[in-house]
Amino acid sequence: MLSTEVGYQESFKEVTDIQEAASENMAEVDNFKEDLNKTFPCRQSQINLLLSLFGQRHQYTYSSLFIYGHTGTGKTAVTTNILNHFKLPHVLVNCVECYSSRFLYEMILNSLHGNSVTESSDLVKCDNMNDFVRMFKQVSQEKGIDQETIYIVLDKAERLREMEMNILPAFLRLQELTQQNVCVILLSEIVWEKFRTGSGYCEPFVLHFSDYTNGKYNYQLIEIMMLDHPTEYDENFYRMYLNLVLSVFQMVCRNLKELHHLAKLNFQRYAEPVKTGEATAEDTRKLWKNIEPHLKKALQTVYLREVSR
């Protein structure tokens, strides 16, 4: 009877410990989610979905994810922030740097192995997809991560279309080919339909990072650009300036990075009358008259990163 009670107590303690660990994990996820939402405003739905898809370290996830959106929408930054924060085994490869399939294979394997490009004697060599599958299993076992989800993140994935025909289908089925818990994440600026060149593709889970500059999302764009507002000026003053910038450039530029660059480039000209005492921060007409010719001139050189002072 006594042994039965002890057994019950031990079982109850184990369940309690598991519940406490789960509660701590949930609290950590919630805190991280809150911080991430502050860093990347207006990306709550994408952040929540990615966190739910990744799950726990040992849980199987989708064999492939396709995340697309224009430059500056945060797809790469959000994905890598989540992977880095939870220290999930992953490899990030920019496909622009991979001039051949062999270079792509070797970059993934060496990054997973932890080899430096300067350590040429230790670099893994790989010629084809069959060798890649075999060596991927070998490296993951050597590193002791074969029982965890391994994420292969391929940025600028549209470049894969220029390589051998078997590369993209093989990466989409890598979980099946390796019989391991691996997820391939494709990051691209174009839609998934442009990747299909035939039948038999394993369809990935598709996630869209929409533009910030589409109609009702203008306020989102301003909120993001407000993160870098000059501390010596009032927030409302800088917000008014950003509204002016968007009203001028919105129709010709949809790139967040470029809009951010243009805003920073011309702000001192906008604030100059206030700094010299010629106008107040509320004198919007005079401030607009002062900045208007500079913004129109910058309009002619959008994306060129050269505006004469």
Automatic annotation (TrEMBL):
Keyword match Disulfide bond = no
| TM helices/strands, residue ranges | none
Q: Name one Pfam family in it.
A: ORC5_lid
Q: Name one GO molecular function term.
A: ATP binding
Look up the record and report any one GO term of the cellular component aspect: nuclear origin of replication recognition complex
Q: What is its main location?
A: nucleus
Q: Which SUPFAM superfamilies match?
A: P-loop containing nucleoside triphosphate hydrolases
Q: Which residues form the ORC5 lid domain?
A: 238-305
Q: Where is the Orc1-like AAA ATPase domain?
A: 39-185
Record's keyword annotation contains Nucleus: yes
What GO terms describe the biological role, i.e. biological process, of this protein? DNA replication initiation
Q: From the Swiss-Prot or TrEMBL record, state where the protein is found.
A: Nucleus
What keywords tag this UniProt record?
Answer: ATP-binding, DNA replication, Nucleotide-binding, Nucleus
For this protein, the record's PANTHER family field holds: ORIGIN RECOGNITION COMPLEX SUBUNIT 5
The family line of this record is:
Belongs to the ORC5 family.
Q: What is this protein called?
A: Origin recognition complex subunit 5
Q: Provide the species name.
A: Mytilus edulis
